Amino acid sequence: VSTRDVYRALWRHKLYIAVATAGLVLLTWYLTTLATPTYESSVLVRIQQLEDGDPTSSVYALQASERLAETYAEIVDSGALYPPLRSQLTGTLPEETVNATDVTGDPVEGLDLLWMAAESPDPETAATVADAAPAALAELIEESGTVGDRVVTVSAARVPREPSSPDLTLNLLVAGALGLVLNGLIAVGAEAIRGRLIAPDRAAESFDLPVLARVPSLSLVPLSARPSTGAGGVTPGAGTASPPLATHSREPRP
Amino acid sequence: MMFRPRRFLVDAGSRSAEPFRALRLAIAAVRREDGRQPRPLLVTSPAADDGKSTVAANYALVAASAGDRVLLLDGDLRRPSLHTFFDVARSPGLVETVEDRLDPAEAVRPLPEFGGLELLTAGYATTRPGEVVSSRRLASVLDWARDRRYDSVVIDSPPVLGAADASALAAVGTDVVLVVRRGARRRPATQALAELDLVGANVLGLVINRCGGPQEYATR
Hints:
- The complex is a heterodimer of chains A (254) and B (220).
- In chain A, strand 2 (102-107) and strand 3 form a beta hairpin.
- Chain A contains eight helices and five strands.
- In chain A, 45% of the residues lie in helices and 15% in strands.
- In chain B, strands 3-4-2-5-1-6-7 form a seven-stranded mixed beta sheet, with helices on both faces.
- Chain B is globular and about 40 Å long.
- Chains A and B meet through helix 8 and strand 5 of A and helix 1, helix 2, helix 3, strand 6 and helix 9 of B.
């Protein structure tokens, strides 16, 4: 299959591709509007290790804090933050709401910073949980007996105005692009399969032989196609059907 | 429930016979162009159930209704069907003329209700269909038909790819029409044509079968 064949197949099926892609985009829009919006609120914290007075240790302080930020991000992702979060938010949010809020950690590469994000269908809840996350992490650190690490809030959480997901624009763009590619592939595939089948219009060209006749499906000949009786020198009722068109069944003799 | 095979014969006077009239004209035109004398017409197909027997029977019927003397010969000894089209006994037929050396004139059945159509059925079931169709005796049956000065001899044969019978029949000096089904895969038809080419068959052209419904052009 040459590039030209592909181009021809795409051009021949342009209407199908356009309609099918538009259909996919519409379906994506509909499903996106049905999806529950999720709001994300984030807080940025610095993880500090208290210096022990040794001047050489300060050289490696940043690297150590960076590694700590990565470790705490993994701890947050593991779900270990929920118990201290619940205790921090006692009286503020019901436990079920806290449990239903997705809390994740994401270290800032090359720095001793850690993003902690809370996702919830309610923007206020997301901001409240995110705000409580640094204190909950500090509580977790304290409970673990680590005395040298400190969590300092750099940027407080804010109530989000726009949902973080679903992203309607992104979804529509992806659906449009996928639709074009998939429907294009279907069009090229269909063309390839059709080229392997016998088509009346292309049979002569395919086999380099004349098409002598095209015979319709005789079982499809309508009853109205039974005009005259006894035309063509054939005695009706004797062998062929009567009236003229015979579409009846004959059984072999026993 | 038992499957009841349907056999379709058109009425030569109706418009459902048009495709077969067109086929008759086309074959005549191709032969005129070739400048050859008409030879027995072998109707075959790449695979089973493409409709070759239906095309052969209706072509013969339409030719006979136009005033020709036509001999329709059932060369498909493996799954003969022409006797069911015309509701006659299967035997005696071709096998008897070859294996029992029965005089073809005794086996051929005139069908006066179809004009000048005569039918030579397949005959009794044989365990050696390949040998029957490739025998010298079969060639002599065709010679007999030529001596009888039929305007047209039409042979219904097995599919080309199903057995070597069709190739054997094509090799005894026949003109071949290949019936292919619309929407069928092209590869079997290509293979069938290659096999026919190997035996030097003179393929006149194709008949595309099951091309949807009939075309409308009714008489006012």
